[in-house]
Amino acid sequence: MNKKKLRIGISSLFIMLASMHLNAQSQQVEKAGIYMTQEMSFLNMTPIQVEQVYQANLEAAEAVENLDKESIAQNSAQSENIESFAKILKERNHSLQDILSPVQFQLFQENKIARAATFRTIVMARMLDLSNDQLTPVFNINQEIVENVRKDLDIYFSANNNRGKNNAQRKLHKALKKADKAFDQILSPQQIITYHENADFFRNIISEEYGTKN
Length: 214
Prior knowledge:
Blueprint lengths: L1 H20 L5 H12 L8 H28 L3 H22 L2 H9 L1 H17 L3 H27 L3 H18 L9 H9 L1 H13 L3
Keywords: Signal
Protein name: DUF4142 domain-containing protein
């Protein structure tokens, strides 16, 4: 009963937070901030933490949106986008570390699959203009993808030489490329085109967030 009341309270807080910032942020940024915060509900955060985490997620979502706009305007290379994206992830995680308790943050860090799947879904939502109905199916696919390549990811990040990393990276790239087909049933024809135009960036999101430690 208490848990039910807590969920209702947090849901109300999400609505309140969204309405407070509706004029200042785009709807996509709002949706991303709320979605990321909801996906962290397993941390059993206090209402104050929820608000602070929401703000951190909102800033990260806005940074991703700005990165997308700047990339288009400046015709940035994929490598530059990936580097900028990694910086956004690290800054967000630094903020979360200041907000969460040590136990909560450790749990957040250990939950690599959900973390990587969530952030990839958010970036896809922004760049592909996903509808609300598409969010959950896309997240489920992303989560399944990360689960399937987790072994390759662990090998990649534990490799202590370039040869080991390169071998793991090739296997990882092959597995992720094969997994792209799963989105064909969810995305519209135009979204599929946009996805494949940015496929390398979307694939790198998984490894960047999965491997982010702080």
